[in-house]
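Hi all, long-time lurker, first post. I run a small reading group and we've been trying to get comfortable going from sequence to structure in the token notation. Rather than ask abstract questions, I figured I'd post a concrete chain and ask someone more experienced to write out its structure so we can walk through it together at our next meeting. Sequence below, copied exactly:
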Amino acid sequence: MRRRLNKAIWFLVHKLPWKPILIWGPWILVLLVLTFYGIENWRGQRALNKALALAKKQELSLRWEDYNPIKIPDEYNLAKSSIFDGYRDNNDLKSIISLAKKGIAPAEVSTNRSDFRKPKARALLTSKVDIRLWLAPSVRPKTEREAAEKLDALFPKRKDFLDQLHAETEFKTIVLQASPKQFSSPLDTTFSDLMRGYSISQICEEDARLARAQGDVDRALSRIEINNAFLNQKAPNLLVPRLIAGSIAEYNIEIAALILRSGEANSSQINRLHRLLEFSLVEDIDRVLLGELSYSLATSEEALKDRQLLNTSIPLSTTFAATTSGTTPSKWEEALQKSFDFSLRRIPSGWLRRSMAQDIERAVEQVEGLNMVHTEDRILFSQRIERAPTKATLAHQLLGQASEDTWKKALVKLHMSDGRRQLMQVAARLELHRLEHGKYPLALDELGSTPLDFFSGKALRYELKADGTPHLWSLGPDQTDDHGLPIQLNINDAKGDLVWMLTPIPGLTEADWRRATDN
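-- Answer (accepted) --
Happy to help. Here is the structure in token form:
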């Protein structure tokens, strides 16, 4: 063995032409690397061109400008209104819950956080929230009406703010515009403006509870109209704004349930409620998918242009959580950011372009022949889920965009929200039937045409409870009829149905429900 090793070493030292290797070897290596990069970049560009041609053939636009709203004059843009000046610094405009958690609420407000916690009940079956608990025990009144009047007196600026905002929504539109680079920047205000709508919708829901306790249905309805201004706002047509809109829509559903359960709304107010619940989160979901794609293409090209994934002058932590502006990155943040950029500079541009081409092909496959429209033959939830992208491409991984199963989970969440909205619209029609005929219908057919279940594509399930009140349900994302067993709130894969009952069943468990339905 030693003999063979010595012979091999002697051969390498004395027989190989080291001089030509040392002279031409580096050049050959450079040529091979350049050839590799050239071939990969050519393959990537060719794949991207083919994908773009396919999208063009399907008449699908991938220009960011088509998914970014058109700018309007500031005087007509509610987002530019002075009404929001100092909003974050004015404690009187924040939710009672936030005040209590921060320990800066007035002495009359309860400091016990559990007094503000909503019961962990099924969707649309949330146990009644007793707003008397929002006040300290020493000043807690006997009736909710007195509690609501007390809270209004403690926080007059909240109601004044919402009333003024409601007045402005009647003649102004909310328009949020941003370039892809701005939207991805942690220091840009677009995302915070979107979240502002969410925080205001939370205040609207709390204020609606005060209005319900005082029998002021019109005030509660006006809070839905404020939320609708944020639901209908013009913003970059991306998944994040749509998911934020889904959270705002959930507050509208809560307010609608409060109004219908109060039994104090007249037919005119219930018709108004029905109209206010018309906004759908999923009817143009294809456009959101294409907006995400145009955003990915634009940011990928931007990254290829300057070969920089992150701004090294901004702390890396701001990518995940807002920090005080003006701070500088720490040494470890700078090192990590530079390592990201070092890696990006050595990736052939063709790899990213081929990844972008894969995104386009998936999007074209998903939206081809599928249109969400207001007709009974719209696509079923199951079809949409089957075509949802489930694998993160290289571009998504590098740019930190939609990861594996992001679209599927988002679609489930948005459809669940829209399904609950659909139930509330039918619930409003059930209330109108009761006001006109003195009782609820024996079957939904008595209401005339009703929307089909988002999840099954068939009729919604309906029956009267023993006390004569309605029990209405949709099959939910598992597309299985659980006979009205309510699904847990915001659990994507949970068993159960989306349910509406006029008289909720607090603390309902699956075992309780099975015993009740088996008898």
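A couple of things your group might point at:
The radius of gyration is 29 Å.
Confidence is low (pLDDT under 50) at residues 320-325, 372-377.
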